[in-house]
Amino acid sequence: MIPATARGHASAPQPPVKDVAVHDLEGRCRAAIDGGGRLQFAYAWFPEIGEARRDGGAAASGAAELRYVVHPARGLVPEIWRSRPGGQAMPSLAAVAPLISWYEREITDLCGLRFADQPQSGPLVLLPGATSFAPPLLPGTAEPLSYTPEPYSLPEVSGPAHRDVQLLPFGPIRADVLESAQFTFFYIGEAILHYHPELFFKHRGMEKRFEGVTPQLGVVLAERVSAVGGVAHALAYCHALEAAAQCEVPPRALWLRALLAELERLYNHLHYLGHLCHTTTLKVGEAEGKYLEERAKQLNTRATGSRFLRSLLCPGGLRREPRLEEIATSLNQLQGEFDTYARMLETSTTHLDRLITTGMLGKQLALDQGATGPVERASGVDRDPRRDQPYGIYRELPLRVAIREGCDAHARQQVRIAETTNSIELIHATLEGLPTGPIRAECRPPARSEGLGWAESPRGSVYYAVHLDAAGKLARVKIKSPSFSNWRVFPYTVHDTNMMDYAINEASFGLTIAGCAR
Amino acid sequence: MTPGLLAAFWLWIAGLLAALARLPSVARGLIALGAAVGIWGAASGLPQGSGVLALAIALADQPVRLHYTPEALWLMAFGLFPAALAVALSTPLRAARPGWLAGAALSLIGALGVFGLQDGYSFLIAWELMSLGGAVMILSERASPESGRSALYMLALLEVGAVAILLAFLLLAEGAQGHVDFAAFAAGAPTLAAGVRVFAGVLLLFGFGAKLGLLPFYEWFPGAYASGSGASGALMSGIVLNAAFFALARGLVDWLPAGTGGLSGLGVLVTAVGVLSSILAALYAFQQDDWRRLLAFSSAENAAIAVAALGASLIFRADGHADLAGLAWTVAILHLSGHALAKGGLFLSSDGVYVAGGSYRLAQHGWLRTTSFTFGIGALFATMSLAALPPQIGFVTEWFTFQTVFQGFHLGTLGGRLTLALAGAGLALTAAVAFATFVKAFGIGLLGDGHRPKSPHVGPGYDGAVLLLGLAVLVSAVALPVWLRALDVADATTFGAPIAHTLASGWNLVPLTDTFAFISPSKLAIVMPLLAILPLLLLLNARRHAVRRTPVWYGGLREDPQRTATTTLTFANAMRTFYSFIYRPTLDTAHEHRAVAYFIHKLEFEHDIADVFGPTLFAPIRRAVWRFAGWLRALQSGDLNFYLALIGALLIVILALTLH
Amino acid sequence: MPLWTLYGLRQGKASTSWPKGDDGQSGLLGMPRFDPAKCQAGCNECAAACLPGAITMVEGAHHGPEVRLSVDYGRCVVCQMCVEVCPTGAFTASSDWAFGVRRREDLVWVRPGERPAGDGPAGAAADSGQREQVRSEIRRVFGRSLHIRHVDAGSCNGCESELQALNNPFYNLHRLGMFFTPSPRFADLLLVTGPVTYALRGPLEEAYRAMPEPRFVMAIGTCAVSGGTNGGGYACGHGLDGVLPVDIYVPGCPPNPAAIIHALLVLLRRMPQRVRQGQVTEERTA
Fold this sequence. Notes:
The complex is a heterotrimer.
Chain A lengths: L16 E3 L5 H10 L3 E8 L11 H7 L1 E7 L7 E5 L6 E2 L8 H12 L3 E2 L13 E2 L14 E2 L8 E3 L7 E5 L11 E6 L4 E7 L7 H4 L5 H9 L6 H16 L5 H29 L3 H22 L8 E2 L2 E2 L8 H21 L1 H7 L7 H7 L4 H4 L7 H4 L20 H25 L16 E8 L2 E9 L5 E7 L1 H13 L7 H8 L3 H5 L1
Parallel strand pairs in A: 1-4, 5-6
Antiparallel strand pairs in A: 2-3, 3-4, 7-8, 10-11, 11-12, 13-14, 15-16, 16-17
Helix pairs in contact in A: 5-6, 6-7, 7-8, 7-14, 7-16, 8-9, 9-14, 14-16, 15-16
Chain B lengths: L2 H18 L3 H22 L6 E8 L2 E6 L2 H20 L7 H20 L3 H22 L3 H31 L6 H7 L5 H19 L7 H8 L2 H26 L9 H22 L4 H28 L3 H36 L9 H4 L2 H14 L6 H14 L7 H34 L14 H17 L1 H4 L4 H8 L8 E2 L2 E2 L11 H22 L18 H4 L3 H11 L1 H4 L2 E8 L6 E9 L4 H20 L7 H20 L1
Antiparallel strand pairs in B: 1-2, 3-4, 5-6
Chain C lengths: L3 H8 L19 E4 L10 H5 L5 E5 L7 E5 L9 H5 L5 E6 L24 H22 L3 E7 L5 H8 L12 E3 L8 E5 L7 H9 L6 E5 L1 H5 L21 E3 L6 H11 L7 E2 L2 E2 L6
Parallel strand pairs in C: 5-6, 5-7, 7-8, 8-9
Antiparallel strand pairs in C: 1-4, 2-3, 10-11
């Protein structure tokens, strides 16, 4: 038992906020990328705007502030760039950092800011044909969108054979119990020329729902942005608020938080391994994977009272003690079965045959387009926030970041298997090293404070940028979810492949649409 | 020569003159009437065959005689039915009509000659006339550099065939002491050495195969057919194909002797060529996206199936099974006669689609929903026949072909049994691919819905013509047990026993004996409507309930059916990948992007498949010929010294020869 | 190459035989129980802590100066905040999770002995008459089998995760004769999750139109019942009320697979409804 004097900070040191002039942005972005860094995400918000100013348009964009979260180079703490457009169109950074293109389009849709020279423009988060009187994220009540469906902008097909291409739409209501999204294939019989996913049918406007909510209650919303990543989202949210409040989370809470995060990783990876077997029609493999996931969820229930580990996290610590008695024994049983299962998966040649060289994601593509999580690590990119920007007590745990160079669906399966094994080890380590003490500290972020929090969810890195208003309530919450980043990458692994591999490729990425669309 | 055929001949001559005089409607009427009269003339000559008509002409001291055997009359009757309708409707391009009708008349006259002439010289003239007629038809329809090239390709390959036929005739005439009379060929062939006989058989196969579309000659089919219209196709795949097959069958079966017990090498070769051609033609038919090309390849495939059956006949005959040989031979004739009807029906429906829609491209426009149901019925029956679905004639003949091949176990030699077993496997593959091809043609070309065309009705007359041909397909199958007797005399003359009537036992069709297998389109034609009563009753019963109609389910959004319609490429691409060692497909996509390669905004896409024999056989030959011609150009060097040297060398050679 | 079939056979039967056995939810925290007797005057901690607005203050003049609470379980997201902040224990944690009901009113807590609003005698009689008709129709048409089409109308994927769990070896929905179908054309029941976003309303209505009659609709999850925490705003509706006619409401965030099975069996009259007027009871009529 580690004595109570051993402390840890909830989050790594807060990233510095730097003001960058609009005309300097592109240069600094280029410098960061050339130096091995990466743009993480971007968002806009309206500080100091009152209820009276609801006329949208120029007045709103005049008051907007853009934030870019940047990793200047590998291994360094991220920094935040702050820029004010002052009513003009911002320069688009998508030519330099392609992954930022989606964030810019989201800013245009939700905040009304325009970008000049975008390589790909057009509505993203709001479907074509959805109009609002004022930008939805402008503070104040937003009216419901009015919507008449319009066709998406798809690449034009030309050439003498252009009439031979069939535009095949799947969805938004898909066969089987799946989330709603529409995928358009440029299909020529077995081969896919081009692929366009329309993922924002499920856009609920979750970021807007945080506006005006008490920080302590905001965690209820954060857990429900993407239920299967609820712990990671709530953790990132809590980290952001704790950074804003500069409060210290008790050590016992930190250790328990790591336990919860790894429990979530466990059931998610088991689900995706089973789902992958479903797409390769390995029936017993699928049944076993889903059954192990159910056992993990029932373990969650016995330990915390919630299958999704909900209603435990709060800013400042945990709300109640989990029941830890049975976890170790249940986990040992699960581990034995999982080891057999993983060994069988890795030696089933028919299953592996469908996975090898399916959905190739090259390393450069993963870096350029902002892939994150097991998807990124299976393409040889060595990044994990638990190790690179450690939060909680991950520094004290035997974390092993799994990297594979295969770049295909098989590599992603291998990464998930390795991470599952490691998660079980981490859970045992937290149970052994758990200190005694309180589990909750006071966390009251001052008015007009802000914080950036992050966590590694089973699908990749989740970031929450939180801004509070003059009354100490939430003014703006920006959610950067891993599924949003990975869905951006996914189409590039589908172009010029074939239809038989598509379902396997999608299952190997293991993404949610609720997390992407928010 | 029956009076009907004579009348047909004169009507066609009159029609030709009218066409040349630029009176298209008169020419149309005359030629179509001639064809109709020809049908009657041919039918009236069955089952005995016609008498002999000696013409007052003699070519190089060879008197010209016309005599029509029963099988010739049978094939001619079945070929003239679609021809009559095709000529009556004629080419949809009005401006091309005079030239086209002239070509049609030439083809028909040539075919008449091919079926009936009994000596080598006049036969070759008629053969060339038939080819010329085809070329005239195609060239008058579309005089463009491409169509010119296709027509030239066709004529070049047909000329190669004609040379082979000529060589064969010379060899056979050798055995007949210089007579080019066909009867003399048959009498004199046994005196030839076995090797020479086989070689002559190969030359005949080669020569007539150029028109039938056996490998490697089927490659002129797509280009030539696609330069013309459906009406040209109906003529070329109907009567002309039948004439070519008749000539080949007569050559291999009547002129060349049976051979003593054992394996007939020629028979194995003919079967192999037939089966391989049918497989290749079927595979290429499946990949086409143009009505005419698809149907052209299908014609080559069906002709090859008939040739395979012919080869089986030769194998059976050499092994001493005259009855099985007769069965195979009769089956081949039945196959092509049914094929002529069905193919004519589909070619005319493609013309109807062209008149209404402006294009021969296979694309989903919902034709069946907008045109009259008679057109739909006719097209459906014709497609069913070509896809070998019961109870149509195509199914009957395909079934008979398989039954014939299955009788291979009667053979004494291992080689024969093996050949027929492999032939059966190859034919099964062909049948499967052909089925898929016609699902594609009918499903995408006629049935599938998409953007409705502006004028949704097929041209006037086409629905009636297609209905007639479709019904003919059905009736010929249902009434086959009755009509088969017409071929008895033909079988008796060729194989020594009247076999045709043994193919039917009551209303069942059987392969000689009813203990092996049987089918009965006649009974199916009664049973199928009776079986349909039950679902019809259920349908009527369901009408009592209110019907709520909802749009097609696409996943929640209403989609534009044109955008999401299956195209010919999406249907066929999987096979393209599977058989890529034959097709060698290419697929090229070029992307246009903005700023960085990730932001694609335009795709340029093209795809293609490679022919088998064009690049590997014809192109090298053509290059060799060019090179050789380049050397020979030295003769035109204009250098006087060179010419003098040549003359000197020639004198020396002549001197040496005379002194030797 | 491992022999999966042998491995599967050796693993044995993993299915529970619930409702006759273990429901797999031991330790689960369900909807909080409300005991107004413990309420103290002047306290509104629970209402302030309830983000989806399930607990609201209602001033009731004819009941004296006491302040009353209205608790609508159709809006409860099971976040346990009310249990945490209540100083007197009026809200207590429980393991009540089988909340599938046929009428929306049954989810609103009513003081025992009082009649819920809008439930007059005429309504009750018409209701039960209609119920008889539906019951016999279900028995006649479906026998014991049900085909379900699921539509995600904008959920957070928690309900999807639990619905996907229905086909895992533990719950094994097939043993009850219920199947998920790929197309609404074959479906008897439309299962909807999510608060119905603006973009998915059209496809949802299209799916309902595409179903042949007789057809039923079930709202799974608090979002589908009332909008929950995600409902409202510029992009979302407030659940299925007003969009489609609903036959069974199942609140929960998300309702666990056993609760979903319970609701399906309530629809088929194979299990009794457990909640009446916001309180957990046992319905005597089957």
